[in-house]
Amino acid sequence: MRRLRRATDRPLSTPHSATVFSPRADMSSTKPVPLPRSAYRHFLPITTRWMDNDVYGHVNNVVYYSYFDTVVNEYLIRRGALDVERGATIGLVVETQCNYFAPLVFPQRVEAGLRVARLGSSSVRYEIGLFAHGEASAAAQGHFVHVYVDRATRRPVPLPEPLRAALAPLVAPAA
């Protein structure tokens, strides 16, 4: 069995030599820059939990995605734009991404900033910044895309007007 290892010029391999990772030639060398608080339109305080930390003493990378999900759904539910129990339209996450700039830890207060980068006919691209309490720059930032579908058929549908109206104040100006 071949050992998995990362090499810049060789892909990782399994015991059967199937490629599981290969560096992409089109990967940008541009380093992401954290956005300031002023880039976001809505904030939700989140307190880290003991279970959020990993063995390295910081919030595990996958937990950041739960914070993303929390700020988006809290916003939609509080504005009556999402009925998780009976709504005919639901949002399915089809894309997600996160860049990490500084560690978050337990115990710590985090402020999740939210904005909408794109409001499409049946999809929304949310952008989220996670800030350590009182910090000016994001410790992490990323996005996820919801495609809105009929709950029963799971087929895309146009954004309901109440949802579109609730999201309008979050739309970020075009760059």
Describe this structure in words.
- Keywords: Hydrolase.
- Belongs to the 4-hydroxybenzoyl-CoA thioesterase family.
- With 175 residues, the chain is an alpha+beta fold.
- It is 14% helix and 31% strand.
- The chain has two helices and seven strands, in the order βββαββββα.
- The strands form two sheets. It has a five-stranded antiparallel beta sheet with strand order 3-5-6-7-4, with helices on one face.
- The N and C termini lie far apart (50 Å).
Cross-sheet strand order for the largest sheet: 3-5-6-7-4
The CATH architecture is Roll
pLDDT < 50 stretches: 1-25
Strand proportion: 25-35%
Largest sheet: 5 strands, antiparallel
What is the overall number of helices? Answer: 2
Which fold name is given in CATH as the topology?
Thiol Ester Dehydrase, Chain A
Question: CATH-wise, what's the superfamily?
Answer: Hotdog Thioesterase
User: Which overall shape is indicated by the principal axes computed on the Cα atoms?
Assistant: globular
Q: Give the CATH level 1 class.
A: Alpha Beta
The sequence of SSEs as H and E is EEEHEEEEH
- Give the averaged pLDDT, no decimals: 88
Q: Helical proportion?
A: 10-25%
Q: How many β-strands, per DSSP?
A: 7
Number of individual domains:
1
Amino- and carboxy-terminal Cα gap: 50 Å
Class by alpha and beta content: alpha+beta
GO molecular function: fatty acyl-CoA hydrolase activity
InterPro entries: 4-hydroxybenzoyl-CoA_TE, HotDog_dom_sf
Region (Disordered): 1-32
Family: Belongs to the 4-hydroxybenzoyl-CoA thioesterase family.
